[in-house]
## 1
Amino acid sequence: MEHKAGFVNIIGNPNVGKSTLMNLLVGEKLSIITSKAQTTRQRIQGIVSGENFQIIYSDTPGILNPHYKLQEKMLAYIDRAMEDADILLYITDVKEKYDKNKAYLDRIARAKVPIILAINKIDLVSEEETEKLVELWQGIFPQAHIVPVSALKAYNIDALYEQVLEQLPGHPPYYPEDALTNKTERFFVAEIIREKIFIHYEKEVPYSTEVQIEEFKDSEDLLSLRVTIYVLRRSQKAILIGARGEAIKKVGVLARQELEALYGKKVFLDLYVKVHREWRDKEGFLKSSGYNN
Ligand SMILES: Nc1nc2c(ncn2[C@@H]2O[C@H](COP(=O)(O)OP(=O)(O)OP(=O)(O)O)[C@@H](O)[C@H]2O)c(=O)[nH]1
Ligand SMILES: [Mg+2]
């Protein structure tokens, strides 16, 4: 049988469940997931290899209107993913208005590659409502293969996977069979910490925060980490740390527990908070944080 391989790029508005779906399709927690929009900031590949196929999924940030350089870079990941896809996996959910982002819908409609459109979160509506949505989307993208799913409940994921395999072009594998992702361990550690920050702080604090790993020492029975959390203002530093350091301590404990389970060893996590007034607009800082497009 001919070997199939290709890039399946996941695109959609913020918070529709792109990352939840990619993790499910890959079978690993690669992308962090929170209830807040703009959780994902970079393009994260998840690779699935079988005997005769290799699927390279890309999770991307939610489509946005950029207001600062970080967001421009987030948008650039999406634009790049629109260009280098073998299959576009557009994700919407049962709640968002179909015309929320008309410009992108028009771009996707003009795509030269197969489009698979997953309507996510069908656990929240009735079967009739789901059927209506399928019809609506079929009208918008007559050429698309539409698959209603629930990433949270893992409904109908097999159908989505079958559709991806079916549309995958003939090609030799791009990566070794055991490759899982394009991202480094340091990146995933920083993401786990950032996830806890997104979950435990409100308003602008998560969006003003960036996590950088300063020191990463992995020995046989201990992972030792020194981490700096950057914020934009002193007031945010105070919120992040909290009264008597309670707030940051909670983030540290939760991140450490997850890392200990992941690495199967003790983790020493040393967290610092620093103010960097314009990190979101500083090219050098963004580069050093891995935003390298
Ligand atoms: N009810 C329900 N909730 C879901 C489902 N899939 C994802 N969610 C929730 O939707 C929220 C957003 O999920 P994410 O996977 O982070 O969404 P995203 O599209 O990657 O978001 P950004 O990275 O911010 O663009 C989280 O609270 C998820 O638990 C689903 O099938 N049903
Ligand atoms: Mg995401």
Note: The first strand starts at residue 4 and ends at 12.
## 2
Amino acid sequence: MAIREILIYPDDGLREVARAVEFPLTGEVRALIQDMADTMYDAPGVGLAATQLGMPLRIAITDTDWRSGEVRHEDGSEPVAARNLKVWINPEFTWRDEGVVACEEGCLSVPEIYEDVDRPAAVRLRWQDMEGETHEADFEGFLAVALQHEFDHLDGILFIDKLSRLKQSMIKKKMKKRKKLQNS
Ligand SMILES: [Zn+2]
């Protein structure tokens, strides 16, 4: 169990295209997935891709329930363990809805920035679980948005790439300033 450092934009590591995961999972990859969960819940966030930890493997996790629902605190500080942790390995969209929804997105790698992004409202996804078994299912709503956001990370794409050039340069400036402040 360990919390790892999340890469912050404009870190080059966030631009890496992740490679496919092979089965059976090695102990190292299992440890990475555990650390991804620890890191996501600690942040706190509702999704995290391995690339955000500087590990370019096609793995992402989500738990879109635990913050929107009631988060119980057992001792007043630590959130209770996973509500609905999902692990997505080698994910691939096999269909995207033509209908688009705008949803406000944020990202642990782009702190304090929240912007509306247009994305297909529903998707069909094929992925593997931790045993290497393949699944396929349709998703819509917030989870569909979260999955598209997370899997973009695996191709080195950030949600801010989908904004206007002007907004992107403003965000870049803001993030560089933030880094300066933290280093001083
Ligand atoms: Zn993100």
Note: The longest strand covers residues 86-96.
